[in-house]
Amino acid sequence: MSNNEHQQTEISSDKKEHLNQAKMRAVVLEAFEGFETLRVNEVNVPQPGPGQLLVRVHAAGVNPVDIVVALGMLQQMIPLDLPSVVGGEIAGVVAAVGEGESDWQVGDEIHALLGIAGAFADYALVPAAAAVRKPADMNFAEAAALPTAAATAAAALDRGEVGNGTRVVIHAAAGGVGSITVQLAKARGAHVTALASTGNLDFVTALGADVVVDRTTGADTEIRDADVVIDAYGPSAQERSWMMLRPGGVLVSLVAEPSAEKAAARGVRAYRIFGNRDRSTLETVDGFYEAGKLKPRIMQRFPLEQAVDALKLVATGQAQGKIVLDLQA
User: Fold this and answer.
1) What are the C-alpha distances in Å from 263 to residues 237, 242, 266?
2) What is the DSSP-derived secondary structure letter of residue 95?
3) Do residues 182 and 206 make contact, with C-beta atoms less than 8 angstroms apart?
4) pTM: predicted TM-score of the whole model, two decimal places
5) Cα separation values, 265 from 78, 110, 166, 223, 290, Å
6) What are 126's strand-pairing partners?
7) How far is CA 312 from CA 36, 135, 137, 212, 291, in A?
8) Is residue 289 part of a domain?
9) Which residue range is the domain that position 246 belongs to?
10) DSSP for 272-301?
11) I want to staple 207 with a disulfide (CB 3.0 to 4.6 A). Which of 40, 83, 182, 276 is the partner?
């Protein structure tokens, strides 16, 4: 071992010893009583095991699923032990590396999808296999805004087999997932019709949609012959989606299980999808970012202590792009 390598090992050991004794801020869920009851607590900094990274969190994305988790609505699907740290996506800097992990070093800048817990804290444990190197020109807020949206948008477009020339309609196109879905569909060469409320039309137009429709005017009821409709809005939008599809078309819902009976009656296919958590998905979307074809839009940043306020804004369904917690604020 060289002197430099020996010195780095000693420094790393010192840092680990310090972290063993350290405390951190964390937004903790102690009961499934809704996000309004969340509090910022002081807890121990977790320690990385084999195959894990300890990441100093610079920013964390805030998503509707965080509200669902706080209500305990995912317990049958993805059981979560309490107390637990809220949040599922982060961007930050590697602070410590678990034993046997050689692909990452302290100081590497990463972003990652954690799942449904662990993000709203000063430090987070990240499976090394889930970490993706942050593009150098992407800031931490943008990097934190991307993992969940990228995973969900890519899964929806894959399910609909969206590619060059596909005619795709996207509900809730101004939201955190919808805004990425519009850009990713365009990057794949699709023709995009984006639905949004009156106040979001300019925002969605700037995303690159070919056609932008004000959903509040009823004009969306005139849309026909779409190859794919992606619903990130809810049951009312899903009900209007059937008539938009051509025979043999595909309805992809991100929020509610479509009716198999209605799909059969219309001669279309319908699916409920969840995000694709494969690291390669985020790497691909990062490539579109670096090529200038996609950019996360950040509506507002909140400090960690205002996580409940951030979730309240998400709960309104009126956010343009993503809401992010800035842990360096």
Assistant:
1) 15, 8, 5
2) E
3) no
4) 0.91
5) 33, 47, 23, 19, 43
6) 53
7) 8, 30, 30, 27, 34
8) no
9) 149-272
10) E------HHHHHHHHHHHHTTS----EEEE
11) 182
Q: What is the DSSP string of 261-274?
A: HHHHHHT-EEEE--
Q: How many domains does the chain have?
A: 2
End-to-end CA distance of the chain: 40
- Tokens, residue 271: 């699916």
> Cα–Cα distances in Å, from 139 out to 59, 110, 142, 247?
10, 11, 5, 43
Residue pLDDT, tens place only, 216-257:
999 999 999 999 999 999 889 999 999 999 999 999 999 999
Tokens in use for 314? Answer: 């998400």
The three-class DSSP label of residue 327 is coil
CA dist 212 and 161 (Å) reads 22
How many of the other CB atoms lie within 10 Å of CB of 139? 15
| Alpha carbons 319 and 26: distance in angstroms, whole number | 24
Count the neighbouring beta carbons within 10 Å of the beta carbon of residue 270.
24
pLDDT tens figures, 247-281 = 999 999 999 999 999 999 999 999 999 887 889 99
Do both 49 and 159 map to the same domain? no
Which is it for strands 322-326 and 298-303: parallel, antiparallel or unpaired?
A: parallel
